[in-house]
Amino acid sequence: MKISVAFIVYNGANYMRNQLDSILAQIHKVDQIIVVEDASTDNTKEIINSYSIENPDLFIIHNNANNIGSYKSIEKAIKACTGDIIILADHDDYWEPDKVSSIIKWFEENPKMDGLMTNGLLMDAKGEINSNYFLWDSMCFPCGNISNSEDLKLYINTIENCATGAAMAFRNNLSFLKKPFPVIKYFIHDRWLAINIAEKNSLGILNEKLIRYRIHPSQETGGRKEGGEKGIQS
Questions:
Q1: Which residues contact 144 (CB under 8 A, 6 or more apart)?
Q2: What is the pTM of this model?
Q3: Would you say residue 224 has pLDDT above 60?
Q4: What are the DSSP calls for 50-67, one per residue?
């Protein structure tokens, strides 16, 4: 089972080394890292190039001539992936060492399922882990009340998206992935992915904390940027 990582980044110099190192340190090694660099204005390109030079058979880099945003960047990265399973990666997070091996095991045990959403730890800009709440808590996702893929589909379609892109993986043979992603105001890529995969009751849940999801003021999407723990508790 070949594993591709779809990695998008814009001005990621502050955090991306930590994330890339965690991907390279996986117990089960990935086969391909597709990077879409979205016309950064810091030294992101130089950092990516240094990793590519050290791992020339692993990295494929696409530098956008102009900034196109995370939605179209992740679409571009996904379409460039050639692996059997695609795992999405935000540049400012961190992967636990068993993330890839846990995902592969889940897909092997669930051959009829097309996608997976997992839980994660929360950390701040300094990398300090929140010991009181997890990723699903930050979205108010009632995982205890979602017992099967039908429940998950209903929740996504009627309440809100609970699948965070940075904690998603899916098979690369899904027909909707080959079509252009629709451009809709305020529409985020993980919602588009979740809606389509859940439509056939084929999106699974794995309550394992496989990433450390970073919440910080400069992130483009996701999480609660202000209020921190008070917002989650509320």
A1: none
A2: 0.91
A3: no
A4: HHHHHSTTTEEEEE-SS-
